[in-house]
Amino acid sequence: MSEVIIFKPKNELVYSKNLEEFINFSKNTLSILSDNPNWAWSSLSWEGIGSFTKHGYKVNYKNMHKAPSEAFMSPAFTEFSKAFIRYRLSTQGGKVIHFLAPLRALEEALLCVIGADDITKSNSTVFDEAAANIRLYTEVKTARYDHGRRLQIISEFISEKLLAPPLTWVSPFSSVKRYNSRLDRNSKDRSSSKLPSETALNALAEIFALDPHDAQARFTSSYAALLMCAPSRVSEVLSLSVNCLYEEKDAKGNTQLGLRWHAKKGGGTGVKYVPSSMQEIAREAVRRLSELSEHGREVAKWYEENDGAFFRPESLRNIPDDFPLSRHQMCVLLNVSTNNTKGKNEIVRQYLRNHPEIYEKMKSNGGVITFEDINKVSRDALPADFPYIDKSIGLKWSGSLFCYRLNELHHKPVRRYELWMPSGQTFNSNIRKTPNRQTIFEKFGYKELDGSEISISSHQFRHYLNTLAQKGAVGELDVAKWSGRANIHQNNVYNHMTDDDYLDRVAKSEIMVSIGSPLAKIKEKDFNAPVTVADLDAATTGHDRIAHVTEFGFCVHDFAFSPCQKCADCLNCSEQVCIKGDDEKLERIKSQRDLLSKQLRNAIQAENDDIWGANRWVTHQSRTLERLDNLIHILESGHVEEGAVVRLRNDFEDTPVQRELRKPSNTGTPPPLSLESIRKLL
Known about the structure:
By secondary structure, the chain is α+β, with helices and mostly antiparallel strands. The chain has helices at residues 10-28, 75-91, 100-113, 124-137, 141-160, 185-193, 198-210, 215-227, 234-237, 279-292, 294-305, 327-333, 341-353, 356-364, 371-381, 424-431, 440-443, 459-471, 476-482, 499-509, 519-523, 533-536, 583-608, 614-636, 656-662, 675-681; strands at 45-46, 50-51, 245-249, 255-263, 268-273, 388-390, 395-396, 404-406, 415-420, 512-514, 548-549, 554-555, 576-579, 645-648. The strands form five sheets. Strands 10-14-13-12-11 form a five-stranded antiparallel beta sheet. It has a three-stranded antiparallel beta sheet with strand order 3-4-5, covered by helices on one side. The protein has a two-stranded antiparallel ribbon with strand order 1-2. β6 and β7 form a beta hairpin. The longest helix is centred in the last third of the chain and has 26 residues, at 583-608. The protein is globular and about 110 Å long. It starts with 9 loop residues before the first helix and ends with a helix.
């Protein structure tokens, strides 16, 4: 019986060819992840990246050899997944491990719908099935949204690179509001849990002021001080170099201090300026951390400049590499002091147990250990990318603020020749209460006011500073840039101002000209009947005039004096009056805010693309958006009575009349304007 050959259309051949070339490109051309055996292409698990497994199997880099073969993705789909991960990491960066869940859902969908793991046969039905798998994988709505968003990125990538027939697929999972930071009691409780307690902050401040000699306390209090200087992710602090401080003069000639920063998640590289009240704290924190890492940087510099040589204590510098080391010399090398011969032997034996390769050589060599043996261990223990910690930003171990020797922050003997860097978990474990671990608060005897143990997390500092910035009426764009955030709309997640905070801020900034006008006067009238300026209690003349009805409220401008100076821009006008309780017009204001948010995103994208004039739109729309947020919050606040009249001042308001009045004369004072001059101007 002759073999049946299935005919393949040309377009299918094109997609298959493109997929083959894409995999070859990622595998053989892209250098990222290719220079380390832990990220070998043939491996089914990449250390720190993730495992190419099906859903339901927990496999990591260390135990992947024990996992059954059915735990892993099919070979063809694994090749695509590896290529996609490597390409994404090369072009976009970020935590590519988050793409593994949607990739697993996609493979399962292909096998279910198509009956094969062929990515070139992807279509909308396949991605719908993948979304259904995600719905089964997790009940958490926020996780579903995140996985769906990444699944949509994969679908767009497949279409863009012509790896399958073009498709337009949108994730069915809608954006989930993480929580409301101001209104109901549950939301307020959740917001409060995101902030460190005042007791914890005061305790850290006192510990820092004590300048403890304990290395761990010194590290923790200084690390916390830097987190209080600028809103940061805990891992971003670890990217600071020893010369991270940056000074420059501002327009008034005052010295401003900043930290050279490398923000994660697309925030970019730049300088984060430190508030004036924290500048000396920042300098002192950097000085203390620099002292702690001085010896570690010395070791790193040695290894960097002396390829193949071993870093030794001063007393052992003149001993040849192949000279047998005595037990006393081994103890000096391990930084352990003891005069007991039995104790010395036990220390050396314990060291050898941790390094079986030396132990086996010692046994076959008559018990002899040399510097050459120790050097091999120390060189093998160096980080994979040494001398770099992060090659993308040029940060070397010898220049890092956090380059330590092993056990530098512990009470164990410091391993003089072995480098070590703390992680975010190192800091968190010192401030967050966990079983069998003493926090810095317990060590110094601090507790909450109710007697409970103090326990906070590093990310609470970031929430705290963002909330302080919002209370200080810092612009949304400035808050995002200060936080190293690529999207200003993420500010809301870190803003934990209460409704009282908002009202206090508005009152202090004098943004409100009039609020709480007579409720009875407004409610007695049918809104279709004329409303006078007197009813609105507007601070203007001609109270018997009829107020003009607008899309959002009422206009109290006197058109007998001049035409409208803010035509079609009512919400930025100080003569616009809104009424608390007019739900229809409140919805219009909200719709306008949503439209403006979209326009601001487009303007920010245009600014990033260096389109001329876009920065002016970003400034204008940012101010308008902040104004609308304040207005909506006041109109929805339970602290403002129904029927109250709200009128906002606009400190940035600009009209032709105001521009003319600001023009200086030759004497430096505004010229007198006659009535005739004003008429000509208008």
